[in-house]
Amino acid sequence: MGGLAASGAATLMHPYSVLASENKAHLRLMETTDLHVHVMPYDYYSDRPVDTAGLARTASIINRIRSKATNTMLVDNGDFLQGNPMGDYIAYERGMHDGDVHPVIKGMNVLGFDAATLGNHEFNYGLDFMAKVLNGANFPFVCANLVKGQLGSNGRKDSLFLKPYVIVEKQIKDGSGKVSPIKVGFIGFVPPQIMNWDARHLTGKVNARDIVDAAKAWVPVMKEEGCDIVVALSHSGITGGNHVEGMENASLQLAAVDGIDALFTGHQHLVFPGPAFAGIEGVDVAKGTLHGKPAAMGGFWGSNLGVIDLMVERDGNNGWKIASFSTEVPAIYKKDGRKKIPLVESDLKVEAAVAEDHKATLAYIRRPVGETSAPLYSYFALVADDPSVQIVSKAQTWYIKDMLKGGEYADLPVLSAAAPFKAGGRGGPDYYTDVAKGAIAIKNVADLYLYPNTVRAVKIKGKDVKEWLERSAGIFNQVKPGVADQPLINNKFPSYNFDVMDGVSYDIDLSQPSKFDPKGELINKDANRIVNLQFEGKPIDPEQDFIVATNNYRAGGGGKFPGINSDVVVYVAPDTNRDVIVRYIVEQGTINPSADANWHFKKLANTSVLFETGPAGKKYMKDVKGVDIEEAGDGKDGFAAYRIAL
Considering the domain boundaries, does residue 21 fall inside one? Predict the structure, then answer.
């Protein structure tokens, strides 16, 4: 049924709208999620239009979907406020003043949203900034697990930052043409991990309750207030297993809560229904259900629209219930090998709403701050020391040494940990840093460092440095010596947790199992992938003290690195990592980002591995230090395959 809605002629209505009879009605629910300020179909990092992102493009699907259904509602599932230079321009350059409307809210206001919830990135610029942004919306925001101050004795006792839910009384038309009210309730949830990820903004001000516990507290209240259909707006992904207190991706467990009728999910930047979630107990990727309830996750950056079609019928008590449903996730583009073919045009009303903000953002990102004597690229950041990571580490080291000068830690050696953010993965084969030799503008710095993290310094010992690197080395699969062309990268391991440590040298023994799983759980306590770990040319002293420059996410426990948490933080910077990189470039005038090849894979005779990266990386292949790389044909989904002889 979903295919008809996605691809039929404009005159064709969805079958539910056609087949609805007296006392039955078709209600189409639509979701955007993880927009990350992508209103325009434009990549500000590469400074060019794109066909693969933007609410303005998603709007064309929304308009088409609305035209094919008798009754529709539109919601957003969070992470709309941060994620590209337009967001940073508003937060850091223009600011939010009384009466201002944020450009992403301008675009959403054009489309007539019925409700929205918060995602974890809404907190990146602080609570005051977020509150000013929300004030500009002509639709309500809800969140049932964001609590002012301390948690109450139970969810019903919490003093919430926003309303936990909203019940929209909508007039719907049934199959006979009769119009009558239906009460549709939307309840929102955010990952409790915001308390770690944005501790600097949230500690002492708010707390986050477990998602499932909050739902159990408030869903019965919604039912008591006469809600016919309860829809969860869960900015939380889908993982299997039983409910665990405080879990980040809890949408499947949330679906088991009695009284919830349908769910929109997000946070993982994936598509549901879709094959990414096959094999999880309680998930039906064919029907698009979680514990039998309709659910959808609409990708990211406006790539897809999550759609849940409901046939609702009178329940005999003048209320409504779900008789049947279908789900789909229509896309704004399709892949054909390495090509991405647009399926829609932009909505000009949405583009017009943000035209001035777009123009100002372009001026902001094109502002030069310095020069680079060599290109900056991240195509090989997961397999060798990398210039895009190197420059971040150099800037962090420069900054922290200066900040600690004259203090109690001034004489301790400073190391720096940094990870590649743009390294392909779910972002696709074009999702890499690629800055040419010459002038560096703000857009290039934002490209080097995607997130508005702030700088932190931690004090740890040499043995902790090794454990930090063991955790990072979990991105690699274990390989068998003497075997050719084994897959190198564990795709379940996010690149932002692959920290490279500058200031020490080390080898990674891929014949060893990983000590930690992708989530940071200890699985092989005696494994030792990190070998020949040296400081200043000598084996590192396990008891020597070191300062490590990093960011607030890592220092606050993000990524679950062993022993790295707020207890070992010795310096909390007021500056973002991006600002530090800009200052470093301005101070240097011309930077030399060449990697120093301080880490390598341990040699394994007659052994080779395969990895995938963007095909545009070919031009840099021979420049990569410390490893010999050769082409190995085409990879999947537009990536290129390469081989490394260990």
Answer: no
Which residues pair with residue 476 across a beta bridge? 489
Residue showing tokens 């109450």: 152
Helix, strand, coil % over all residues of the chain, rounded to 5: 30, 30, 45
Segments forming the whole domain that contains residue 428: 368-645
CA distances from 56 to 138, 317, 346, 414, 492 (A): 18, 41, 5, 46, 31
- The verdict on 195 and 75 lying in the same domain is yes
Domain boundary among 337, 358, 379: 358
Residue 363 belongs to a domain: no
pLDDT of 8 reads 38
The full 3-state SS of 523-536, as one line of letters, equals CCCCCCCEEEEEEC
* CA distances, 597 to each of 180, 414, 548 (Å): 69, 18, 19
For the beta carbon of residue 48, count every other beta carbon within 10 angstroms. 8
Total number of domains in the chain: 2
Name the DSSP letter for residue 489.
B
Do 125 and 178 reside in the same domain of the chain? yes
Q: How many residues does the chain have?
A: 646
Residues 228, 281, single domain; the answer is yes
3-state secondary structure of 307: strand
> Is-contact 508 539, C-beta < 8 A?
no
* 197 in the same domain as 132: yes
If you average pLDDT over residues 326-348, what whole number do you get?
A: 92
What distance in Å separates the CA atoms of residue 399 and residue 392, rounded to the nearest whole number?
Answer: 11
What residue type is assigned to position 498 of the chain?
Answer: F
C-alpha–C-alpha distance, residues 556 and 456, integer Å: 9
Rounded distance between C-alpha atoms, residue 47 and residue 362, angstroms: 8
Domain final position from 334, 358, 382: 358
Q: What is the DSSP string of 160-178?
A: BSSBSEEEEEEEEE-TTS-
Structure tokens at 489: 């990268």
Residue-wise pLDDT for 54-69, tens only, equals: 999 999 999 999 999 9
Scan for tokens 């508005």, then name that residue: 452
Do residues 431 and 347 share a domain? no
Q: Tell me, yes or no, whether 320 and 379 share the same domain.
A: no
CATH at 294:
3.60.21.10
Q: Is residue 217 located within the same domain as residue 103?
A: yes
Report the C-alpha gap between 196 and 199 in whole angstroms.
5
Domain with residue 587: its CATH number is: 3.90.780.10
pLDDT of 359-415, one tens digit each? 999 999 998 889 999 899 999 999 999 899 999 999 999 999 988 888 899 999 999
- Phi, psi angles (nearest 5°) of residue 549: -80, 135
pTM of the model: 0.75
Three-state DSSP state, 505: strand
- 14 lies in some domain: no
Cα torsion through 566, 568, 573, 577, rounded to 10 = -90
